[in-house]
Design a protein that fits this description.
The complex is a heterodimer.
Chain A (H helix, E strand, L loop, with lengths): L3 H7 L3 E2 L8 H9 L4 E5 L4 H13 L4 E3 L3 H9 L3 E7 L11 H7 L2 E5 L22 H13 L2 E3 L6 H10 L4 E6 L13 H9 L4 E3 L3 H4 L7 H15 L4 E3 L47 H9 L4 H20 L2
Parallel strand pairs in A: 1-2, 2-4, 3-4, 4-5, 5-6, 6-7, 7-8, 8-9
Chain B lengths: L7 H8 L4 H7 L13 H4 L4 E5 L8 H14 L3 E7 L4 H17 L3 E3 L2 H9 L4 E6 L23 H7 L2 E5 L22 H13 L2 E3 L5 H10 L5 E2 L16 H10 L2 E4 L3 H4 L6 H15 L4 E3 L8 H6 L23 H9 L4 H20 L2
Parallel strand pairs in B: 1-2, 2-4, 3-4, 4-5, 5-6, 7-8, 8-9
Helix pairs in contact in B: 9-10, 12-14
Classes of the chains: A alpha/beta, B alpha/beta.
């Protein structure tokens, strides 16, 4: 009988997308949860970048910025946490793909194209229209490929944008944080067809534990989260599924509305995010709970090698393909 | 249009381009030196150019000085000046704040209302209305309720309006946050955010301009707008199949909506082979037939384009010729050829006044409420 704790301890655990505030409390929980590599929002302005880099610098005994798989493996050996910067949209480059080169030097390694709504690149998944990639979007993807950035559909793009992106990209493609549309009909969830297309390119699909992507009531259990992993594995195989919990760590009230202006229903529309939407799987509220996933997968009969793939190695394989190191 | 046979010799003359300068000398007294011409039917003619894109600080000062003098000679009373296109928010702010001094340096005055346009005309000055030829500065709709960095501020639309912008294009040529442009590979229509912005523009009295927008975006906007909208510089696609031109359906929709289509002189939008004044008049005729005399204006579209801007803006080569750009009417000195041409085609003076400016003034007044 394989010991779940021991297996988890040996595994390089990669959380493919995290949305928690990047602070000391997060480091503590990541350590507690045995997470080796945590993908966080990179800065979109110099000020944000400075905050992140200063923080990493000030906590260099515990965390390090990683832009290569070699560094992530090194972090595991040193018992540090590798931080990877992603973008959940490319709005920061405006209409200038060449800025990607500079942001890559600042540490951005993974690029989502758009976030729920249309931007210059294409439609997001909750937009009223469901159109595909723009001419500019094609240029952005070519630049992402050229620079060796990881192209991420995120789960935030519309299906048409995703299909177009798969056609244009010459490199691997991931869908970092989504859930299975076959189990939960939410615009943020991915169809089986798109999962298969991503897997056919050796890509990876990451599963979140966000309540409303798992169930219409938002009151998800770990069992339900594991059902989504099961479905994804049945659809594309254990080599193409990862975890990307997208936790926000603690419920926050939405910011106060701007004087005299109605709330913006555009970015987080009720079709995908019901009111009061900070709802995470019971028992998987913070990164400290990640070992429960390894345990749950073992209980469902996954082999240790499949678990190692799902908990991190799949991400590392596809990152290495994209980044080249 | 009535039979234009008696005017045939003049039209042939015009087509050859030889008569242009001669005719314009007849009009030269108009507004020169701040003194309106004595010709009574022209004193109350306000000539509006709904697309003076060249009035932009990028253009070299000698080009600008010459253009302003040409506008004066051509009798232009009011122009929409391109204060911004696809710049981001900080750059747009800088441009808007610098625009009034820029206009003053050229002897032009800025106008935020029809009252101000009329006051400028009375004092012999050309009134320039702040025109954004794009909406990128409004930012992405994102981030207000999500814990991520946002480029969005819902108040931006109010700010640009406060600072004097009165006409705004929904898109440039490409995909934007509000909708898709006309040379984009997709034709998706307005976004949710675009619908919000449109309503807000209606509410605050920002005139919506659908030039450069894709077909679906413009149709969505026309169908949803509670105010008249304009195409500041677009011609009839039926006569010239340029991506920037608009279909019969779009033209009819503008008529139903109460708006105005500004006919442009940009050569590639007039005719791919023979962009003559006569062909420009054909566009006016065509739109008048389809939409009615109350829905046609002039947006000449003079622009300052260089090889560098052409490349930087990723111009669609099928829609835009490589610079230098040319125009069916070589410069604004000769825009009175539109007046003479329309007369020759049997338009009465009242109709000509509408096309040259009164239609735009009507829509300005209706939307701006001032």
């Amino acid at each position: 009988m394989v010991d779940a704790k021991e297996l988890h301890r040996q595994t390089i655990v990669v959380n493919g997308t995290d949305a928690c505030p990047f602070d000391e409390s997060l480091i503590k929980r990541l350590k507690e949860g045995g997470v080796t590599c945590n993908v966080v929002h990179g800065g979109t302005t110099m000020r944000d970048m400075a905050d992140l880099i200063e923080f990493i610098h000030a906590h260099s005994e515990e965390v390090m910025l990683a832009t290569s798989v070699r560094e992530i493996r090194e972090a595991k050996k040193q018992e540090r946490i590798a931080i990877v910067f992603n973008w959940q949209h490319c709005n920061a480059i405006g209409s200038d793909p060449e800025l990607l080169t500079t942001f890559q030097r600042l540490g951005i390694s993974i690029c989502n194209l758009c976030y729920n709504v249309r931007n210059l690149i294409g439609d997001g998944c909750t937009e009223r229209t469901h159109c595909g990639l723009s001419l500019y979007g094609e240029r952005v993807i070519r630049k992402i490929n050229e620079l060796g950035l990881m192209l991420d559909l995120g789960g935030h793009t519309s299906e048409s944008t995703s299909w177009d992106a798969l056609k244009v990209s010459t490199g691997p493609v991931i869908c970092s944080h989504t859930n299975c549309r076959a189990l939960r009909n939410n615009p943020r969830c991915i169809s089986d067809e798109l999962m298969r297309a991503i897997a056919a390119r050796d890509g990876v699909i990451g599963m979140t534990c966000y309540g409303y992507f798992l169930t219409d009531k938002g009151n998800a259990t770990i069992d339900l989260f594991l059902d989504h992993i099961d479905h994804a594995v049945r659809t594309v195989g254990a080599d193409h599924v990862g975890i990307a919990l997208d936790q926000i760590e603690y419920p926050q009230p939405p910011p106060a509305p701007i004087d005299g202006v109605e709330d913006d229903p555009y970015v987080s529309p009720p079709s995908a995010y019901p009111k009061n939407y900070f709802s995470y799987t019971q028992g998987l509220e913070t990164p400290a709970d990640v070992p429960k996933i390894t345990k749950g997968l073992l209980q469902r009969g996954y082999s240790p090698s499949d678990i190692t793939q799902i908990m991190g190695e799949n991400w590392l394989r596809v990152y290495e393909q994209a980044w080249g190191h | 249009m009535p039979d234009d046979t008696p005017e045939m010799s003049r039209r042939t003359f015009l087509r050859a381009g030889a008569g242009v300068a001669g005719i314009s000398t007849l009009e030269k007294g108009f507004f020169l030196g701040g003194q309106p011409s004595a010709r009574p039917e022209e004193v109350d003619t306000v000539v509006v150019d709904s697309a003076a894109s060249i009035l932009s600080p990028e253009a070299p000062s000698d080009v600008l000085t010459r253009f302003v003098e040409q506008m004066r000679q051509g009798g232009v009373s009011c122009a929409l000046g391109r204060v911004a296109t696809s710049e981001d928010w900080p750059a747009t702010m800088v441009r808007i704040l610098a625009y009034s001094p820029f206009l003053e340096s050229l002897g032009l005055s800025s106008a935020k209302s029809v009252g101000e346009i009329q006051a400028a005309v009375k004092s012999g000055k050309i009134a320039v209305v702040f025109h954004c030829q794009g909406s990128y500065m409004l930012g992405s709709p994102f981030g207000v309720s999500r814990p991520m960095v946002s480029t969005f501020d819902i108040r931006r639309l109010l700010r640009v309006h406060e600072l004097g912008v009165r006409v705004m294009q929904l898109t440039d040529d490409f995909k934007g946050y509000l909708g898709d442009g006309c040379t984009e590979r997709t034709d998706c229509g307005l976004t949710d955010y675009g619908i919000w912005a449109l309503r807000k523009m209606n509410e605050i009295g920002m005139l919506v301009d659908c030039s450069h927008a894709g077909y679906q975006t413009s149709m969505d906007a026309i169908n949803m707008s509670r105010q008249p909208i304009i195409f500041s510089h677009s011609n009839a696609k039926a006569l010239c199949t340029n991506k920037r031109n608009i279909t019969d359906e779009q033209i009819r929709a503008v008529a139903t909506n109460g708006g105005v289509i500004g006919i442009t002189a940009a050569a590639e939008m007039v005719d791919a082979n023979a962009p003559t004044v006569d062909r420009l008049l054909d566009h006016i005729d065509y739109v008048v037939h389809l939409a009615g005399i109350d829905h046609v204006g002039m947006g000449f579209g003079y622009s300052y384009e260089t090889a560098a801007t052409y490349t930087r803006l990723h111009r669609d080569t099928s829609a835009y010729r490589k610079p230098p750009w040319s125009y069916a009417i070589s410069d604004p000195t000769h825009i009175s050829t539109v007046r003479t041409g329309l007369r020759a085609r049997g338009y009465d003076e009242g109709s000509i006044r509408k096309v040259l400016g009164a239609n735009f003034l009507r829509v300005f007044r209706q939307v701006w409420q001032a």
